[in-house]
Each structure stands twice: as structure tokens, then as C-alpha cells.
Fold this protein.
Amino acid sequence: MAKITFIDISIENLGPFRERQTLDLAVFPKRPVALIKALNGSGKTTLLTALQIGLYGFKGANLARRSDYEQLINSLQREDAVGNSVVEVSLTLEQAGFRKPITLRREWYKKAGAFNEKFSVYSEGTEDVDFGAEWEEFINGILPSELVQLFLFDGEKIEALANPDRLPDLLRRATEVFLGLGGIDALENDLKAVERRANLRSKDGSEQLNQARDEAEKYEQQRDEVAGRIAHLSQEQAAVSNTLDRAKIELDRYTSTAQQNGLSAFEEAAQLKSNVEYAAKERKEARVALAEALADPVLPLAWLGSFWERYQAQWAVDQHAQHAALLAAEFKRRDQRLLKSLTLPGKAMETVKQALKDDLNLFKQSSSLRPVLAGGGNPAELQPKLDDAVKKLKKQISAEDKAASLLAKAEQSVGKIPAEEQLASVFSSLQEHSMAVSKAEVQLQKLTHEVHEARSLLAHTEIRLNAAKERLRTEFKEEALEQHGLVASARARKALGLFRERLMASKAHWLSDVITTEFRQLLRKKKMISRVVVDPATYSVSIEGAAGNVLPMERLSAGERQILAISVLSALIRERKGRFPVVVDTPLARLDQKHRESLIQNFFAKVSHQVLVLSTDEEVHGKAYDALAPFMASEHRLVFDDSQHRTVVESVQR
């Protein structure tokens, strides 16, 4: 739904306004109020009327006849006017996230003694003819014209709304309009017209038509009976399905408990015993493999400990001694070959021989160790075999330990198997739970079969019913359609009436809550009432006192009745959810200071996103002005010049 915000209004040659006068009506989100002050007769009522007819034309004036509207405009036109009478309302439309400024212009002039009005819509300075043609429908979609005086109202006349005789009609009509119930009323009237025309054309049907109708009704009755049976069977099916689910849950729960009590071990007895045999066989094989590992001829070397390390060290020493002996023999043969090859004088030869001999003796002395160990048994060759033997032995020892552990666990599990007689009660209860599950499954299967058969019968019956209806449509098309339409029309009207009644009753409860909240906020005597009640049937309004008793309207003062009327208006205005401005003319005249401040804080500051307050110089001043000031975006004065008989607009700098 679109949102409307006034930008400004210009009035020319209408009422006390002669030359074109423009009021800036812009407001801000946290300052929604524009204050317009004027003495009586300076143009407040003309301004309110200009806004109403500027938006809605004839329908905004709330007059019974078009001629009354013409008289109103004629009475407002000035005799000293130069030019036509004009009202221009500039506003902003917000819809679907877009803002569009437009200007509505209404111009009145006389031509050949006849009353004439020209209406135009301008967008960005250009006339929008299409939008102008659709404007009435558009603005009524936001706020119907018959309710405009609830949003643009005269505060001095508002008390009349609290009249117990008038208020129910106002509330009911406003609710019907806001809920769009006019469409329902129009539809009901259309259906009644159709029924009247059909009854005028109806004639007694032929015997064949009556037979065809009876046949169709018979199949329709059969279809309804079968459909009812299917619904009943489906309910039973769902109930049995739930019973089956519960039985399965109980069976699972009991089985779990029974297994904890030894049932699981008993059921697995054969497997557990087989596990013992298998574990015993595995251990036997592990022991054989362990014995084979112990029989390795190299393995005893592992038991030698440090002796094996000493053997390895001695073996290295013996190898060194053997190598030294071989080298000494080789050095001796080398020396002999060297001496044979030398040709030296006798003394020199002897010196060389002695030197070689001394060198050989010195080598023999430094490598004089003799081998201790017998030949063979190289530890470098034995060590890999020894490591493999030790590794194999450890593996077999681990395998034997594992096999022994498995055998012990298997024997322990077998030991927990209870005797069959110990589980007799468990088996009995388990059988009962299993039978409950089986019984539910059988019953569910039976119901499923019955539902399937019933649906097959329903499909067959519907085929026959459709054939009978097709015959009525083809052979007795006109008669059947007319009769069917009459029945459907009656059902539709009944449904529409019931829907309308319940919708209105629901809205009455909502109105009771909202009006109560608004009234309690605005009322000075907070404990005076406990609730304002809107009767859901008659829409009559009653007030319950703090003790639960009904307070007569006559007990309310004029100011309190005005507060009640404003509370009703506030509830209805909030129904539009801040989509339309509120304009109030002379709102505080009959209220005391306390009520004025309450009205300012709880109504003007909150009722809409834009509120125009048209006040006399005696209303909004002093404490009331101070209370309104935080919410004011602008302030203007309508000043009437007695000498020139015209009103001018003055903006007050704040």
C-alpha cells in the first residue's frame, strides 16, 4: 500500500485567501507535527476543507448531494477575486521503495453561469493525464473517501462521535471499509440477483431429468459414505500404526533389559562355545610355534649376555693376531727378495740385513698376540641369524599371550551363560511383547487392505458419479446448470455471511484492546476505567469501571467524551499503519491542561508520520506549546488583514 506525505498546500481565491498563499507542511521522522495557528475566521476551517476536497473532490466534502458541493464552492469563492479559485496539494507518494512527488490541482470557474471544476495531476512539472484519470481509484485504495473525515477532522465536532447511538455505526462502517467487506456485500447482492433470475426461469423438470438427478444423488451419497469409511479406516489405521510403533518400542526396550540379564549370552551360547574352541586351538598352535622358535640352534647365544660381547671382542683380537702373523711371514719373504736383488759391498750388505731383521723383530714384538679361539664361528655371520631368532621368539611369545588372553575371555563369557530355567520368565515376557507386535502388524495389514479396497470402491463410485453428472451436463445441461448454480449460490452466500460475521467479531476484539490502550494513555484519571468493550455482534461501545461495573456515557465529562472519541479515531487511524497524514482542527478547546499534555504526547506525537495541528491562539500555548515543541517540525500563522479582508501565511522561525 502506498504512503502519502504532504509537502505543501497552496490556496488562491478561496474563503479568506485571496492571493496565492502556500503553507510548507514538511515534517521530519522524529518531529511529525506542523503547527498552524490562527484566530477564529482566519482560515483554519477553509484550510481543512481545501485539503479534503483537494484530495477527494466532491466525495471529500461529506455532502449528501452534488449540488451541496457546488454551493460550498460558490460560498467559498471571493467576489473580489481576480482569476479562478485554485487549490494545489503537493505530496510525496512512497510505494514499493520508490518516492514520487506529485501535485494535485483543482480549479473552479464559471462558464455560461454553470459550475465547472478542472482536476489535474502533475508529476515533475508535467501533467500526467493517465494518473489523473486513475487518481480517485488510487486514493480510495489508500483511504476510502467516506473515512477521510476520520483523518482530517474538526476537534470541536469530534465529541459527537462518542454518542452511543452514532458510535457503533461509525465503528462498524470503518471496520467494513478497512477490511474491504464492500466486495463481500457486492458479491452477496450479485448472487441474490442470479438466484432471482434463475427462479424466474425455472420450470418443473422432466421425469428423465428427475431420474438422472436421483441417480447422480445416489452415487454422490455412496461416494460420501465410502469417503467417510475411508476417513474412519484411515483414523483406525493411524491408531493401529501408533500401537505398532509403541509395541516395537516396548519390545526393543524389554529385549535390551533382557539382554542385560543374560538373554544375550544365552542366545549366543553356541557362538561363545565355538569361540572357546577356536581360542584353544589358536593357543595350541601358538605354543607349537613358540617351541619351534625356542629350538633354533643359534638362539642359545642370546642367553650368553655379556659373554657374547666378550666373544665378539676376542674374535676381533684373534683376527688381528692372525693378520699380523701373515704379514710378518710376508715381510720376511719380501726382505729375502730384496737382499737377493742388492749388490752391495760386504759391510754394507750386512748393515742392510741387520736393519731388515731388526725391523721384522720390532713388528713381531708389537703383534705378538696369539689367537685364543678355535677357528670358525665368525660373530659377524652369526649375529643376523641370532637377531632373526630373537625376533621370531618375541613374536611367538606375543602370539601365545594374545591367544591365552582370548581363550580366557571366551571361557569367562561361557561362564556367564545362564541356565534355560533361569530365563523362563524372561522368555515368557519376551514372547508376549513379540505377540503384541505381531498382532498389531496383522491388524495394520488388514486395515491397509480394507483402505485399499475402499479406495478402489471410491474410484469406481466416482466414475459412475462422473458419468451421471456428465449425462446431466450434456442431456440436461441448462436445467442442471441452473439448479446446481442455485445450490452453489446459497452455499456461497451462507459461507460469505459466516466469514463476514467472524471477521467482524475478530476485529471488534482488536478494537476493544486498542481503544482501551489509547483511552487509558490519554485519560487523566488512570484508574477510572478498566476496559473499553466493543460488542462483536452490535459494535456498541461500553466502558467498564475499575470495579467491573458498566459506566454510563453520561457520567463522562465533555472533555472525557472527546478523549474517548479521539481514542476511537486513534485506533482506526492506526489501522492504516502510518500511511496517511492526520489533520486536526481546534483539537484542545474543551480539554483541561492535563488532558492537553496527554493528548500531545500520546496522540499528536505518535498517531501518524505527519500530523497537522490547526489551533487557535488560546489552545496551543504555555505548557501545551512547550509539550508540543519537541515534536514540531514547523510553525505557521494565518493572519487575517481586516482592512483588505484577506489572510496571509506567516512562517514562525523556531
Summary: The two ends are 35 Å apart (CA to CA).
